[in-house]
From TrEMBL:
One of its GO terms (biological process) is translation. GO terms for cellular component: ribonucleoprotein complex; ribosome. The gene is rpmC. GO terms for molecular function: structural constituent of ribosome. The lineage of its organism: Bacteria, Pseudomonadati, Bacteroidota, Bacteroidia, Bacteroidales. This is Large ribosomal subunit protein uL29.
Length: 65
């Protein structure tokens, strides 16, 4: 997910999306330990997407106060 797409989401949608992405990331990591994923770079990409979303949430939190 691109930064521009993240900024277009409302705060509520962004929070829900972060929760969903974290759950999917955890599941993918567990599955990877059991049976290796075809492309382990997907795990890295998903982790970075979560970080981008959390950064945007923190930015919004600091600017609203």
């Amino acid at each position: 997910m691109k930064i521009a797409e993240i900024k277009e989401l409302s705060t509520k949608e962004l929070i829900e999306r972060v929760d969903a992405e974290v759950a999917a990331y955890d599941q993918k990591r567990i599955n990877h330990t059991i049976t290796p994923v075809d492309n382990p770079a997907q795990i890295k990409q998903q982790r970075r997407t979560i970080a981008r979303m959390k950064s945007e949430l923190r930015y919004r939190e600091l600017n609203n106060k």
